[in-house]
Protein 1
Amino acid sequence: MIHNPVDSPERRYKVVVWATGRVGKLAIRTIADRPNLDLVGVWVHSESKDGQDAGALAEIDSLGVTSTRDKDAILGSDADCVVYTGPATNRPREAMEDFCRILEAGKNIVTTSLPGLVYPRGSMRESALTRLSDSADRGNSSIYSTGIEPGFGCDLFAVALTSMSSRIYSIRGLEITDYSRDNLVYEMRELFGFGQRLDYQGGVMMPGVITFGWGAAVTMVAEALGAQLDEIRESCQFAPAPRRLETASGVIEPGTVGAIWFRCIGVVDGEEAITIEHIDRMCNDVAPDWPKSRMGGIDGVWRVIIEGEPSFDAEFEVGFNANEDSTPHGLLATGMRAVNAIPWVCAAEPGIVDALHIPNTPAIGALRPKRDGIPTL
């Protein structure tokens, strides 16, 4: 019988954070504040971070854990799980090497770095999935990929809503985001195409890129409903910036890409039945006719629209209070999908774990009515 973490919330797990970028820092702060998690290691890429205290890297008090660039030291530790938040979209081969080494060393992995791994079908090549599964078998370990989207907002959230359905005609999962405060240059400029000419053919405009990122999530929704996809289609369109925009990822000149709407489309019985859509803007007055939240918002919203019997239109918004910024709140939600899953992934059978085949992963030890402990944001 697989251990159920909810039955023994006092059990502690030794955790390593692999990379200390935007999500990694938040993971360190949360792990330091959780009664069931012990931070035992931090891997860093840059020489300037090597040897620093993990607390300093996370901008909190000292934690007595020294960061290292030595992968062998991390792999030789007694950690139960690695929270892997290093970049993968622009270095997939290196990330795959890391995953296999970590798994073979007997460490479980929760990661926010590879969206196409949220489900073991639909995105990644069978050879890559087999390689991961074989490494996990050798190390008696598991790997789980997740995030706010894909990983929850447009897929698992949709699956949960269908538990109230009699008949379903179509499902649309929408991420609606203002990316003007996101400083990831590669993702913003090259992958999504912001600031490029409107005839840009790189990034998500290249055939197969959208499917690689989101095909697994669409497939997960379909298979949760007992359906098989005929195919996965892609569509993408740009809208021009109405004026010169100064964003965290660089200047966007008027007339260049200021908004993007792309769709990963699951076809069932010849119909476009399940779609995951990104409607991402760089200012609030670009592409005014494109989808928005129910209240007309264009930032920090994940919305699921189900046509059927009954019909649903449900959404959630991160960082909704007036004094909050949806960007760090969204990053925190992404990281917590991984951190909160640690007990369940450690209890899982070896292999690739997905959200359909483990229970819900509530945040054990997170309830703080008195608002004590270490603030994360």
Protein 2
Amino acid sequence: MAKHKRGLILGTTALLLATVAVTGVGLRLARSQAFFQDNPKELVDEVWQIVNRTYVDGTFNGEDWRAVRKTYLEKEYKNPEEAYVAIREMLETLDDPYTRFMDPTEYQAMRIDTSGELTGVGIQLAQDQETKKLVVVAPIEDTPAYRAGILAKDEIIKIDGKSTKGMEVDDAVKLIRGKPGTSVTLTILREKKAIDYTLTRARIEIHPVRAEVKTTPIGAVGYIRLNQFSAQAAEEMKTAIEDLEKKGVQGYILDLRSNPGGLLYTSIDIARYWLKEGKIVSTVDRRGEVEQQSANQQNLTDKPLVILVDGGSASASEIVSGALQDQKRAKLVGTKTFGKGLVQSVRELGDGSGLAVTIAKYLTPSGRDINKHGIEPDVIIELTDAQRKELQKSRDKIGTSADPQYAKAYEILKQEILVQQGQPGQNTAVKTAP
């Protein structure tokens, strides 16, 4: 069971780069691929059964799920491709873009993503639940999309001139993917203005944690930037904190900006490095059962902490920042987070295809359901488009005094450190969240 839990993912639907993991361990069906080739209707029923057993909403978002089964099992399917079309239609009735079917090629692409052999342009892509528009959750740092200036919340309206109206995320991924060195043009809608970005696809190596010591007037400060909650992120975070502790830092700034999330249990492990005791997150399934995850006295530091967040901080980023905010362990600086509070399980089906099912939602320690709402920081510092573009253009300015949000985080951390040292802090004027 532990292996299954560690495969749980949060509600980002991006398949362009790895922030998700496959929970295929122990879940592979016993029936052979040949069986499903000869009996495609069985695959339709298998998908229905999984959703029926595990979907987060027992009302199936108001859909008569048994009637759906009857409708689709009354049809005949000549081949697996016809069954795939039917499965996608069936899942669309749930009106949940995070519960989705992947044919064998798409599922294999997801597995490649999680292996570390990545190719793409470097964006996390999702479908807005209400508008059905394709939006950028966040560009991944040091990738073609990031360097070009694509921003979180940008809407992708065309891919190589083809309209994305009504397009599913998986279909968009197919168009955006390609061999390294080839190009793709994304038309972005931002503030009612359409902008074309021609990006060269590349092989992308991601190290989720970057850490350094900042020399300041109040002593050494540890700065840690976490790009995604991948499988290796927890171990890299542990190493970074231990190394910074040895170097005698007085406090920390944890940068979760444009971090679109990833593995549920990676976020819990990382929260435990900062929090000595107390609840971290609760997951609630359709039966109302609550599974709580808490700190376990294994924290690596108790020094002052400020966390940077923005509209690209999603899912796992919101678990960590929400937990440490609720537990008064850290101050949050930046702008409201993305607002994704759903948990999915990804299963491999008998014919080599895959199914992602929304199985739960998560709550912060105080009981906040942040899905669609996001987390308000303690101190709101907005960046203009010009400032964001400048930081993306000149990456060496991120996490420096030239970065307005970092500068405010340092100012707040400085006060926390002075108070901990028994020195009077100076009051500073800040714009706080209501």
Protein 3
Amino acid sequence: MIRRLSLRVRLTLWYSGLVAAVLGGFGAFWYWSVRQELYRSLERSLEQVVRSLAFILERSAEQSRQPLRPPHRARLSVHRGELFPFERPLREFVGPLPSDTLESPVWSAIYQYVLLNPRSYTIQIALPDGRIVWRSENLLGDSLPVVSGLEVGESRSLQASVQGELQRLRVYRTRLAQIAVGYSVQEIEAVLQRLAFVLLWAVPAVLLVSVVGGWFLARASLRPVEIIRQTAETITAHNLSLRIPEPPTNDELAQLARTLNQMIARLETSFQQVRQFSADVSHELRTPLTILLGELELALRSRKSPEEYEAVLSSVLEEVLRLHRIVERLLELTRAESGQLVLEHEPVDLTALVQEIAQDIEVLAHERGLRISLDAAPEVRIFGDALRLRQAVLNVVDNALKYTPSGGQIQLRVRSEGHEAIIEVSDTGIGIPPEEQPRVFERFYRVEKSRARLTGSDGAGLGLAIVRWIVEAHGGRIELESTPGRGTCVRFRFPRQQDQL
């Protein structure tokens, strides 16, 4: 059910639930902490009072050198309306405070506000045998419990109902008497009730404010997401130039917008490449097909001699072979880019491979009036596919043969440089214009189609694209340096064999 709700509602619910849990936990912890602290403070106060009384009793007994005794009027009856004997002041039984005690302002305050005129505390003093010798006036005829079994110096806390209200008691045993001090917990419980009342009203109020604030916060936070969604809906294959507005921040939403814009840019590039590929394929196939169609129609219009038919068939065969090469290279490049073409992975001696290529092209170079030179370091090895590496180098050398005028030179070099194995193919040919150099390794791209006519080349612009794929599939990279009228240098850089282990 929750999954069907909008993200804004779900965020608000999660936020509200979290705030409710935090407020509830905080309120419960606060209530418990206040309660514990109030009762701990009460226990400390009761302990201080009983210790003070014990100290005063001990000092008074030492001064008078008389044991603690019940009052002389113990036989008075409360039924005749006379004062209960134990309601007389404590000083009648313990005598005056010692002079050194009265000099202390602390004990003077205790004697004046706690012992002589108790208001909040209820105090009771009993002999070790359990007989009560004194109690505070606010007990009004009631008595505090007398605890049996207490050792001298031992104290105990307990609760008891005194005059119809619950009191927290602290009972302390001295060698002379058992001192009991009580304090009503009604005040503490009243404070706790007021605190609970405040929490019961404050927590829902804060929660309500949090829910409303969470709703608007979720709405404001998701506003950029809504803008992204609306913009993404308007982007189609016909307007891939549109971009999603990026928030002027560096948060997750800005990063999402940038990532989507990068994806749209890649899609735009891919669409452009597909359109360009379709146009290039159509153009490359249309030329030989037009030639085929024209020559066949011309051959059928009139009767020709066998030699003429043979010439027509030779021309047709040449165009068919050209179509075959284009289709084969397209299939090879498509299989390579889709991962269907698997390369071998074995040690390859680049020095030996380039030496074989130099020997193979020497005859062709001699026919065109070109010189071939080789500068190869011994045993430069990499891991790779020897057949594909040979194909890549031969494609570059073939271009050097086509675009280098008679009397020029083609130089092959193999060397090691740091952790790289390097193959260089340089020529003294016509070179490549600087504006054309970044695109020479793209499929179907040919530098100045007039160059192909001048050199007699019928390439479709796929050879260098295959070269780039072979080099990159071996973990290498291609560098191109060319100056129009002075020549071109193509450099392959591969990781060396020991670095690929």
Protein 4
Amino acid sequence: MEFTTALFYVFSAILILAATQVITARNPVHAALFLVLSFFTAAGIWLLLKAEFLAIVLVLVYVGAVMVLFLFVVMMLDINMDKLRQGFWSHFPLAATVGVVIVLEMSAVLWRGFLRPDNHVPAAADTIGNTKALGIAIFTHYQFAFEVAAAILLLAIVAAVALTLRRRKDSKYFDPAKAVKVKRNDRIRMVSMKAESARAAATTDKQEG
């Protein structure tokens, strides 16, 4: 057995164990950390498959940005785990059915690839690099799918911004432009009042009388 093959099996075992812990860990922080381990292991497998660009993007985007955001949200929210576990077994049959269908679909695709492997690789792919080859494949064979995905992501960004900027009656906000325009007389108002000593003396005389 070659060294790269042994590494592939080791990384695959770690990836399966980490993915299992993601869905079985009781602590959400531990589940997020196991997901980070899964991403790193998947990046290692992609490096073994000579897909350096995908491995770097997975580490930078998902581990460096998305998972950090997940950890912040999970640690800042007070999650009631007992409430989340309610109704688990009632939804288990549907979830198990969907999971079995996904496993069968992936098994059919992988089994077909193992039965009839396509070893024909263009000679130019060895010289232009996998990043350039990925760009050529995206903008030629998968151009329509790429544009549809870009439109969906743009719609999601606009929707997120619109939901965030929605003004609520119970929310408090601060307008810096109005704060800059405020003058001194608008901040402090001088009110003339009688001396407290005279008022206190009058109250004392009234009580004595």
